[in-house]
Each structure stands twice: as structure tokens, then as C-alpha cells.
Amino acid sequence: MEEIKKGGIFAIPELQNVRINIGEIIEEEEEWEPMGPHPMPRIATLRDWDFKLLNRYKPFYAPLCDMCCLCTYGKCDLTGNKKGACGIRMDAQQGRIVLLACLIGCSAHCAHGRHLLHDMINKFGRDVPIDFGPKVNIEAPLTRLVCGIKPKTIGDYDKVFSYIEEQIVQLADALHTGQEGSYMDFESKTLHMGMLDSLSKEAADILQIACYGMPTSFAGDGPDVPLVDVGIGTIDTNKPVIIVIGHNVPPAADIGVYLTENRLDDKVELGGICCTSIDTTRVYNKAKVVSALGRQLRVLRAGIADVVVIDEQCIRADVLELCQHTHSPMIATNDKAMHGLVDRTDDDPDKIVDDLVSGRVLGVVILEPDQVGEVAVRTALQVDKKRKGLSYILSDAEFTRYVNDCIQCGSCTLACPNGLRIGKANKSAAAGNVKPLADLFDICVGCGRCEQVCKKHIPIVDVVTKAAYPQLKAEKGKMRVGRGPVWDSEIRDVGAPLVLGTIPGIIAPIGCGNYPNGTKDAWLIVKEFAERNYIVTLTGCMAIDCALWKDEEGKTLYEAHHGGFDAGGVLNIGSCVSNAHIHDAAIKVASIFAGRPLRGNYEEIADYILSRVGACGVAWGAMSQKAASIATGFNRLGVPAVVGPHGVKYRRAFMGRPDIKEDWTLIDATDGSKVYVEPGPQDLLVACETVEEAMPMMAKLCIRPSDTDRGRSIKLTHYIDLSLKYLNTYPPDWHLFVRTASDLPIATRNELLKKLEDEQSWKIDWKTKKIVEGPIRAYNPSFNPTNLERLIRRKK
Amino acid sequence: MVMEIPFDVANIAGPEIGGTAPPEVIGSYITSAKRPLLVVGSELLRGDFFLDIAIEIGKKGIPIAATGHSMKGFVEKEYTENVTYYNLHELTNCLRDPNWKGLDGGGNYDFVIFYGILYYYASQMLSCIKNFATEPLMRAVSIDQYYHPNARMSFTNISPRMEEEYKDMLRKLVGSIKR
Ligand code: SF4
Ligand code: SF4
Ligand code: SF4
Predict the structure, then answer these.
(1) CA dihedral A601, A607, A610, A614 (to 10 degrees)
(2) Ligand 3 atom 8 nearest Cα
(3) Do B75 and A410 make contact, defined as CB atoms within 8 angstroms?
(4) What pLDDT digit, counting tens, does each position of B60-110 carry?
């Protein structure tokens, strides 16, 4: 007889693995791996792990606002860590605000994924298999790790999203007045949110890869994915141009299908801004990447687009106004960003096209992605004819008038996030030298704040664009198509060198374009580390921005370096959601190389990664709330991140204190002994003021306690060398990372031993060239570092 | 009363905002410090003059934390006597801890002078000091060409057109630091 269990589940004793849930049949589950200790963790499940991290990397707060105005007890002044009327202190309030930012970021990724799931199930059904080809067996490392689920078809992601959604609501509840009061617990919740964010991204990318056949590990994929055009100059404006903006690819994919089916792919340009553009190139090989987020305002103002199609995230709130100005009809395709337009889904395409072309409406909403292609393309074909001959770039006369109008009042500089001296540049342009203005183009983040305050009503963004126009037209770069997952076979090949340290690390430039000093820094970071044989894995805006620059031979970094997950590789992993594959690569090192169980085993894998996988994210232009949740997701998994100087406005950082010895106690899992170790990685989240400072910082954050002496000597070489190159000095803390003489690079060993003797008073035996006294600990090649007592194999 | 506008106009933190002061006043305020620290950033590298001012302050016995990549300039000038590279985020993380031993092992500082640092980065670190380095109180001033509401004292915003005047202010400031 069947036995009724809790929650309306029937178990039938004769059929051991069949359970029937009311409303849903849970099918026989393949026993792929025993379930680990923490499947689908709830808020408090991984709290112990979080507290281990938070005790070492104590939350650091730099409030952007000293008040709280979240409830009507307020406003409350919390300056000086005072308490508000509800009893919350400034530190907890900062934790609360960071949780709120991560809630927004994670919700964006989760809702994007859920939206995709709905659309994909509608279009393809629930049974689309998740098959990533012969080289990817672990198809969904984060899904396995966090949920304990091995997804076989896209329908399996229903459960995954339900889990994430429930957790998001629980975490949002903690933000309410009168809930959490401890900053440590707020941060534990934030780390939980970060983990959910990474899972959401993986889910979203897996769905689109599975349904659209984006590159994975079939022939021509992986390291061999093709190159695509990047840059404003690559768009042929003699053709009708459609510009897609956002992050959710189905509408753009439908445009690609319509163009192909109607043999218009050579007659119409399909270009994009931000992540939709990256994902469009993964499904339609004629698509072009016009720019990353930072140039959105300028691309729209330049009037390149005959039709603008927006989906979700990172779209300017004034996009419709901008489109109106350049007579470009707009199609909104996502219920999260409808901009006041009328929903015309299921309306007759002839009528919609007619309304858009005639200008009767500025734009429309079409929420069914498969209806977008036809409307967008037909509209573009007709609007292009009407817009022929119109130019939205300032004329020479207008330019001269504006630069002469400028009274150098400096209001724009005070409004500019980068403090750009526009007045000074205007003055020089008025005197005939436009270079200072043109030079601002790349440093400007395209926010438009300057124009809001200019009393002379100078369209500053247009003035700068005009000055830089010749260089803009010449902006033609190349980027590798987003390759998606790192292959299991690649992990097998590089797992050992990565953990032993002979490949010095994985550098992951990710995220937005709020750079302090322009896109060239993105290029410089990638170049420096790829040339030093790090593996450089890029996603999102940094993947685009670094493609705009070329070396002396005229090659972009994607052309100068291979695209494999190996020393010296420059990999475009894909859009923002694809950066889950960077988490996945680290997870696969633990699973494939070290044989650690994955299923429901987050804590152990994060512990492994923190101590052994030398990876460091860099979000040089981190801007959005998504960037906050992305970085926090990396942090919970044990991966540090460096942010650019604007990143201090996230308010919270996680930094360690090398001077507090107890903070750096690890356990040797072999015998349970406690070991004081060097501070590797020293920080989980830290900002650098300039790219020069970031270079050695990233190298330092790739150092791990598990490095072999050979690996450590390679990592130290780069750390010291980058510091000498960019700061003109030895790092003041390099000695902390020396355990034995063989940790020192052979070429400079004597010199470095001498420095240790002279500057740190270490004892050196010069006959044997050995260190007798000084290091934090001796090098032990069989050290098995962990933070988790439960992993001790046998107690001493 | 005319209120100065923060260099980044929207950077109004709350009820406690610092005042502006002329160089002599800031100089004598610095003189009142027991254990001051000069924190400099990469904007210092925009000209020899600015670097020299830092060195002059350093020569008065005030130790220098060189953040960003400003260290480069001190090495080139062959002045590294009491200069230590430190990441500004990490440094502020130490400054907020009364038990920190300082750059020389002599304990935390009671006074920090921010100079040559990217405006918004400096502002956030000054916010941390204002809000969390309160027991014992750490005083923080900025001597950049910006009004910094998160510092207890700073100059007014000084336009690039007034660069010579600003240089003059720095000279006066150095002159009025008595140690
Ligand atoms: S939530 Fe608390 S701190 Fe915020 S306004 Fe209300 S009482 Fe004040
Ligand atoms: S706000 Fe306008 S007038 Fe004033 S400096 Fe800037 S561009 Fe010139
Ligand atoms: S648009 Fe550019 S110049 Fe204007 S305020 Fe923004 S970053 Fe500064």
C-alpha cells in the first residue's frame, strides 16, 4: 500500500524510487552523486561559513549618506555610528543598504532567468535537453552545488527558480524596519544573496545556451569561436540599422531569424549595446557590438539607429526621449521596462509598422519576442529611407558656437562623476585646439549630468562627441564571441598548474563601464595579465571595452591571444549572466581536479576555492546593483575582487588585516593542526585608486596558501615585478609570502634573500642559501588547508 | 552665510558636514595633532610642485602613506625616508581600528591629512573616518583643491584657473605647520 508522507507526498513501498507529490510527479531520480550536507541552503544554513569569512574579512563601511529615511520614524541621523529611532546603528544600516543593493541585483538576474524560462518553454517546450557537447559533462556546477539538482531539461529549472525566488523574498523581509539588527548578519544575508545571484546567472545562461544553441563544446566552439566586430565605426550607416539594448536576448534573436529567413542579413545592420549585443552575437553571426553601456547615451544621440529595441536592464531611463530626438522609433519588449508606451502585443504587424514609420507613435510595447523581428526589421527598412541625409552630429558652426558660449563657470565639472574639466577643454577648442575635448570622449562615462547644470544650455555630450568624431568613425575592434562554459577537459589540463600555482592565476575582468579613466584601462589590465600567462576570462562590458584597443601590430587582444582556458588565454565567456561560468570553472577545479563532491556541498567547495584556486575578479567600472551582487557571489565562493575607485561608493568592502595573526589561522586537514598562514588572499573586496595600483593588487590576490614553492615563486615574481613596474617600489609586504628560499624566484633569489636579511632581520644561512628564521610558517608541501573542522581526516 | 558646494554637488552626507578654512587655520590645526599622518594619492603626480609639498610636510616629521601609485613619485624624487606604500582602502580599514599599530608600530594616529587623492575615493574614506573612527576621535582634513564635506576641514573648491592661488595656499599651509 502507498504510504502518505508529509506535504501530500505518496511513497509506494513496492516501487522504491517513485514518490508522488500532489500536483506534480517526481520522477525516478538518477543516483548521480550522494547528496551533500546543504542542498538548497536557507538563510541560516551557511551562516557559519559566512561568519568564518566575515571574521577574517571584517565588513568595512564608508557611508554614502549618513541618514536613513526608510520609515516615518525618520529621517534618522546615524552619523558617528549613532542609533536610529528603531535602534539600528550606522554599521547595520550600511549592511542593510548593501543587502538592498544585492537584492536588486540578484532579482534582476533571477527575474531575467525566470522570464527566459517562460519564453523558452512557450517556444520550445519543457523538454529541451541540457547537452553542452562532448567536452562538458558537468553542465551546471552551481545548480548541482547549491540545489543538489542535475538538470536534464530546461523544465528542471522551475524548481531552481522557485528556490531562488523564495530565498529572495525571505531576504527582502529582513530589510524591513525592526528585523535584523546585526551588521554581521546583514552581511551573511548579503553573501547568501550573492550566491543566489550566481545561481540565477548560471540558470539564465544555461537556458539560453540550451535553447538557442549558443557555443559550448561542439566543433568550432570554445577556444575556436569566431571573432565579431566591435565599435561604433563598424556599423554601416548606409544600411538600415537596428540597435538592441539590454540583457535579454530573445527579441534580438528573433530579429536575427527574421533577417536570415528574409535574406536581409546583408542589407540590414543589427548592432547592440551592453549584454544583449554580446548574446546576440552568440546566436546570429552577422550581429555587431556597437558599444558597452558607457557609450549608450552617445550612440543614441549620434542617431545611428533607425529603430531601437530595448529589453531589460542597463537601459537609460530617458531612452524614449533620446529616440524621439533622433526620430528613431522604439520597441520595448519586456514588461520590466515599458516606458509608458502602449502594449501592442498580438496587434496586426502592418498596423504597428505603419504607426511607427509614420511617427504617429514614438514607440510600442511588444511582449512576445517572436513578434519583434518582423516589426523591427520592416520598420527599420522604411524609417531608414525617411532618415536618409539627416545628421545628428553637431555641424561645425554649431560646435564653434557652443564652445564659444562656454563661460568656464565649472558647474559641469562639479556635476561630473569623474570631475572632468570641460570648461577648460571648451576654451581650448574655442582657440582652435579640439584635442583636449576629444580626449574627454573616452574618459567620459556618458551620464549626461553635466548638461543638466549648464546654464548656457550647451549639449556637452554632443560637443565632446563632435570633437571626437573622427576617432569614433575609426573605432573598429574585434571580440571573440562569448564561448560559454569552460570545458571539463580544459579543467583537467590546467587544474594542477592552477592549484600548484605554476599558472599564476585566473584574472576575471567583469562588469560595467564606470571607469575612472576610460576604456583603455580595461585593455591594459587584460594585456598585462595575458602576457604574464594568467588565464584572463572576461564577461560583459569589460569584454567589449577591451576590444576597442589594439597593439602596435594593429591586433586586438582577442586576436593576439588564444581563447582557451589555459596560460595566456583571453576568453570572452559571454554576457553578465555568463560570468557564472567563471564561478563554474573554479568549482570544476575542486570537483574534477581534486575530486571533491559537488552535490549540495557549497561550503566545502568554497573552502577549497578560498585556499587553493588563485582567481581574482576585477570589476574596474562596477556601477550597477548587479555588480554588487555579482562581486558578493564571488566572495562567498572564496574568490576576491578588485574594484575601481568608484566601487568605494558601494559602501562596503571586505578586507583582511595581515597584522592580526589570529585572523590567518587555518587547519591542516591531514591531522587537524592549526597553522598560521600568510594572508592569501588578503582581501575579498578592495578598491584601487588607479589602474597602476590595481595591477600588483590583482597579482597579490592570486596568492593562496596551497601554492607549491615553484608556484609561489612565479606568483611572487609577478607581484614584485608589477609593483616595481607600476609603483616603482617593492611591495612593502612581499616578505609575508615567503615560506622558504625556494619560494623566491631563482633569478633574483640572492638579492631577495639579502633584502630579507637587511630589511626584515631574517636569519639566512648563506652557505646553503636557506632561510633559518623569519617566515610566518615553514613550507609544507603536503599542507592540506581548510577552514572547516569537519574536514579533518584524523585528529592529532 | 554662503555654504560651499561639495565638489561632487550631490555629495551631501547629512547633518554633520565639515567646514572650509584658510591654509593658516588648517596648518595650525595640523600643528595641534599629537600623531599626524599625511595620506597622499595619485593626483599628486600631476606636477612636481605638489609632490614637493608632500615631501616638505614629510620633512617636518609627519609620516606619509603613499596610496594609489603615488609612491612612484617619491621614489623618483629619492625621498622615501618616512614614506610607505599603502592601499587607501586597506589603510582606512586600519585607521578605523584604535588598536592598529600604525606604520611605525607606534600606534594609531589622531589626525590624518588627505592630499592628492581622487575626490570621490577620498570622500568615502573620510566618511568612514567620520562615522567610525570616533573613539578615540580621529580628526581628518583635506588640503586638496576641493571642498570635502566629510572632512572636518578643507579648502573651498578651487578652479583650475586659480592654480597659482592654490599653490600659494599650499605654501602657506606648509609654512604654518609648526613641529
Ligand atoms: S528604519 Fe530605523 S533608522 Fe531608518 S528611518 Fe526608520 S527608524 Fe530611522
Ligand atoms: S557648465 Fe556649461 S558654461 Fe559652465 S563650464 Fe561647463 S560647459 Fe561651460
Ligand atoms: S556625460 Fe561625461 S562629461 Fe558629462 S558629467 Fe557625465 S561623465 Fe562627465
Answers:
(1) -60
(2) A416
(3) no
(4) 999 999 999 999 999 999 999 999 999 999 999 999 999 999 999 999 999
Cα of B50 to nearest chain A Cα, Å: 18
Closest listed residue to residue A536, CA positions, set A642, A635, A616, A644:
A616
> What would the pLDDT profile of A476-516 be if each residue is shown by its tens digit?
999 999 999 999 999 999 989 998 888 999 999 998 999 99
Asked if B41 lies within 8 A of A61 by C-beta distance, the reply is: no
Every domain of chain B and the residues it spans = 19-176
Q: Is position A166 within any domain?
A: no
Number of domains in chain A: 2
Please indicate, yes or no, whether residues A352 and A454 belong to a single structural domain of this protein: no
Q: Are residues A342 and A427 in the same domain?
A: no
Residue positions counted in chain A: 796
Q: What is the pLDDT of residue B77?
A: 97
- Chain B residue with minimum CA distance to A411: B9
pLDDT digits (tens, 9 = 90+) for A445-457: 999 999 999 999 9
Question: φ and ψ at B120, to 5 degrees?
Answer: -75, -30
If asked whether residues A337 and A368 sit together in one domain, one would say: yes
Confidence of residue B3 (pLDDT cuts 50, 70, 90): confident
Ligand nearest to the CA of A72: 1
Does the beta-carbon distance from A690 to B85 stay under 8 Å? no
Ligand 3 lining (C-beta closer than 6 Å): A 415-418, 420, 422, 444-450, 460-461
> What residue type is A764 in one-letter code?
I
What mean pLDDT comes out for the span A599-624? 97
Contacts of B132 in chain A (CB under 8 A): 61, 81, 90-91
**Minimal Cβ distance to A686: which of B15, B87, B120:** B87
Cα–Cα distance between A541 and A482 in angstroms, integer?
Answer: 12
At position A12, the amino acid (one-letter code) is I
Instruction: Tell me, yes or no, whether A422 and A341 share the same domain.
Output: no
Contact A648 B7 (CB under 8 A): no
Residues in B closer than 8 angstroms to A700, CB to CB, are: none
Residue A126: pLDDT over 90: yes
Spelled out in words, what is the top-level CATH class assigned to the domain B19-176?
Answer: alpha beta
- Residue whose CA is at the smallest distance from ligand 3 atom 4: A450
Query: Are residues A310 and A377 located together in one domain of the fold?
Result: yes
Q: What is the pTM of this model?
A: 0.95
Measured CA to CA, the distance from residue A101 to residue A161 in angstroms comes to: 20
Q: Are A337 and A312 in contact (CB under 8 A)?
A: yes
- Phi, psi at residue A560, to the nearest 5°? -80, -15
ipTM for the whole complex: 0.98
pLDDT tens, position by position, A621-643: 999 999 999 999 999 999 999 99
Please enumerate in sequence order all residues whose Cβ is within 8 A of that of A478, keeping only pairs 6 or more positions apart, or say none. Answer: A227, A228, A229, A230, A547, A556, A558, A559
Do A274 and A347 fall within a single domain? Answer: yes
Spatial CB neighbours of A171, under 8 Å, sequence gap ≥ 6: A43, A99, A103, A189, A192, A193
Domain span at residue A442 reads 396-458
Give the C-alpha distances (Å, rounded to integers) separating A786 from A100, A675, B145: 31, 10, 49
